[in-house]
Write a structure and sequence with these properties.
By secondary structure, the protein is an all-alpha fold. The protein has one domain. It is about 40% helix and about 0% strand. Helix 4 runs parallel beside helix 6. The chain starts with a helix and ends in a 21-residue tail after the last helix. Bound molecules: 2-acetamido-2-deoxy-beta-D-glucopyranose (NAG). This is Multiple inositol polyphosphate phosphatase 1. It is an enzyme of class 3 (hydrolase). Its EC number is 3.1.3.62, 3.1.3.80. It is found in: Membrane.
Length: about 200
C-alpha cells in the first residue's frame, strides 16, 4: 500500500505545481534594495522650483558619492556561478518540476550575467543615469542657479581619482549643462585630502 500512497502524493505535488503567476507579468516588482536602490525608483516626486518666502537661493553645493557601481571581482564571479543555477531551473522545468510559468523559463533561457571582471568597481550604466537625472532634477528645482550656461567663474567641479567617481561627476555635469565639452574639469588629486573619506 505504501508505494501507492507515495505515488499518489507525488502526483498530488505535480498537480499543485502549476504556475499561478508569472514574474514576467509583474509590472510592479519589488525594487527597494537598501543602498542598492536606484534613485529613479525613490526620488521625491516633484520638479517644481523650491520656493521659500523671503528667500532666494544664492549657492548650490553638492558633495556626493559615486553612482551605482559594479561589484568587486568576487561578486562578479558569484554572478557567473548563477549560470549553473539557471540551468538547473531550466532542466527541472523541462522535466515538469517547479512552478515557473513558460514565459519566466524563456526569460531565464535568455538571461546571462552582464558584468565582466574588467568592469569590477566601475560605474554601472544605471549609476550614470542616476547621477545625470539627479542633476536634471536639481536644475529644475534651482533654476536661478543651475539653469544657466557654464562659466568657470561660477561653477567648480571636483572629483577623486577613480573611474566611478570621475564618470559620476561627468554624468552630473552632463545633466546640468547638456554636455561636458566646454566644462573645465581639473585633474583629480591622488588621495585628495578633502574629498576622500578613507
Ligand atoms: C531652463 O531654461 C529654459 C529657457 O528659459 C527653459 O526652456 C527650460 O525649461 C529650463 N529648464 C529647467 C530644467 O528649468
Amino acid at each position: 500500500m505504501l508505494p501507492l500512497i507515495l505515488w499518489a502524493s507525488l502526483v498530488g505535488c505535480q498537480v499543485t505545481a502549476k504556475a499561478d503567476s508569472c514574474f514576467a507579468q509583474n509590472y510592479n516588482p519589488y525594487v527597494l534594495f537598501s543602498t542598492y536602490t536606484p534613485y529613479e525608483f525613490v526620488h521625491e516626486n516633484t520638479d517644481d522650483p523650491v520656493h521659500i518666502p523671503q528667500c532666494r537661493p544664492v549657492q548650490f553645493w553638492i558633495l556626493s558619492r559615486h553612482g551605482t557601481r559594479y561589484t568587486d571581482a568576487a561578486g562578479i564571479n558569484n554572478m557567473w556561478s548563477l549560470i549553473s543555477l539557471r540551468d538547473h531551473i531550466i532542466t527541472n522545468s523541462k522535466n515538469g518540476r517547479g512552478t515557473l510559468c513558460a514565459q519566466d523559463v524563456d526569460n531565464l533561457k535568455k538571461w546571462t550575467p552582464q558584468a565582466v571582471l574588467t568592469l569590477s568597481m566601475n560605474l554601472a550604466p544605471q549609476g550614470y543615469k542616476d547621477s545625470y537625472n539627479v542633476a536634471r532634477r536639481f536644475k529644475s528645482r534651482f533654476p536661478a542657479l543651475l539653469n544657466q550656461s557654464y562659466s568657470p567663474e561660477k561653477f567648480e567641479i571636483r572629483y577623486t581619482n577613480s573611474q566611478r567617481t570621475t564618470l559620476t561627476a561627468l554624468a552630473f555635469v552632463d545633466g546640468i549643462f547638456g554636455s561636458t565639452v566646454d566644462v573645465v574639469l581639473p585633474k583629480p588629486i591622488p588621495g585628495d585630502p578633502l574629498l576622500r573619506t578613507t
